[in-house]
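A further point concerns the way the authors explain their paired sequence and structure data. For illustration, here is how one protein appears when written out as sequence plus structure tokens:
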Amino acid sequence: MAKQQKKTIKNVSKSKSFDPESSPYFTPIAFLGLGIALIVLFSEFIFSTEMLHGSDVIQAGIFFR
């Protein structure tokens, strides 16, 4: 009987896949994407002549004086 040779299996610890969190452009692109999404979602209000009115702002302004 012949001796069986051990097959060596190479461990690949890191593959050369793209990791977006290590990219220096990840954070600016994420903020830009979120900003564009917010503008698209609220474009009806942003580009109108309406204003936000709240009653609690007046009460807090008097209280903090």
